[in-house]
Amino acid sequence: MDIERIFVRTRKLATLLASTALAATTTLVAGATPAGAAGPCGSSYSRVGVYAVSKDGTRTGTLEVYYSSSTGKNCALTYGYGSYANTLSWKRVTISRGDGSGSSTDAGEYKVYAGPVYVSAPGQCIDVGATVPAWTIRELNNVHCG
C-alpha cells in the first residue's frame, strides 16, 4: 500500500468515526427528556389543585397540589406571584394528612418556590398551607380526599 492510500483510508475512517459520534450525541440529546418535563414533584405526579395566596384582594403567591397514583403520595409547592415571583422572599409550604399526622414543611427565603413537600395519605384527606410573604397565609383543611 502506498502512503496516499493509507492517508485516504485514515481520513475516511476519521470522518466515519466523527459522523458516528455526532449522530450518537444528536440522538442522545434529541431523545432526552427536558429536566423540567417531569414536573416539580416527579414524573408520576399530576396537578390536582391550584390555589391563590392572597390578602385583602392582593395575590402574592400560588399553592399547587399534586398527586401520584403510582406512589400514593401527595406533593405541594408554594410559588411567589406578582412582585413576589422570581424574587427572594419568604415562602412556606406545609402538607399533612387530614388528622395532622405526617406533616412536612419547607420554609425560607426562596427566589422561586418552597417545596416540594410530600405526604402519603391513602384513603384520607390532606391539609395544605402556604405563606408568601411572611404575612400572607392560605390554609386548606381536609382537601383532596381519596
Q: Record the strand order, biggest sheet.
A: 1-2-3-6
Give the end-to-end Cα distance, rounded to a whole number of Å. Answer: 77 Å
Strand content: over 45%
Mean pLDDT: 82
User: What is the overall shape?
Assistant: globular
The share of residues in helices is 10-25%
Give a count of the beta strands, DSSP E runs of length 2 or more: 8
Which ranges are low-confidence, i.e. pLDDT below 50, for 5 or more consecutive residues? 3-36
What is the H/E order? HEEEEEEEE
Rg over alpha carbons: 25 Å
The assigned structural class equals alpha+beta
Account of the 3D structure:
The structure is a single chain. With 146 residues, the protein is α+β, with helices and mostly antiparallel strands. Helix content is 20%, strand content 45%. A four-stranded antiparallel beta sheet has the order 1-2-3-6, with no helix packed on it. It has a four-stranded antiparallel beta sheet with strand order 5-4-7-8, with no helix packed on it. 28% of the residues are buried.
